[in-house]
Amino acid sequence: MTAKEEFISIYTENIKRAGADKLLDYLTNKCDFFTAPSSTRFHGAYEGGLVQHSVNVYHCLKDYLERQRVKDVYGMSYSEETIAIVSLLHDLCKINFYTVDYRNAKNAEGVWEKVPYYTISDSMPYGHGEKSVYIISGYFYGDSRLSREEAFAIRYHMGFSGNEDKNSIGKALEQYPLAFALSVADMEASYFLEGSNK
Fold this sequence. Notes:
By secondary structure, this protein is mostly helical. It is 50% helix and 9% strand. The protein has a two-stranded antiparallel sheet. Strand 1 and strand 2 form a beta hairpin. The relative contact order is 0.16. The mean pLDDT is 93.
């Protein structure tokens, strides 16, 4: 199963909110979500890296939330829908965000040639996590909108590696445990499953 097929399977099996079908149509037919990289040169810096990263974060979050300590001591328990939403959709901010450019580099024979690389072209500079929340909120409406904890989890999924005020990050992670869990899953996927050496 490809990452795209797995994403669509997890999405359609778990996400049932009003507007979910329209969001999936947008991801499938109206943007570059399934072909975009996940970064310019670090984790997932290849065509399809974004969808692979999203699926990886889903599995890492599921595993984290299955830990006995997380359940018994921290009391963390979330619906399958919430888990799918925050993990699969946390990086929608990267849709139509990267473009291919070219630079000169020497090949294995020492000859200069033009090689492609990813660069950032942000047509909607609305931040990182907050942009993902904004995009999702355009599709999930009324009683189906994101819960406060889902919104904060997506907004602060970068944890302390984001550019925000560190006090705000700490308060968000303390108040919304799902935000902490998602940031752990995001880092695990980024550094251990998809790091630049993978």
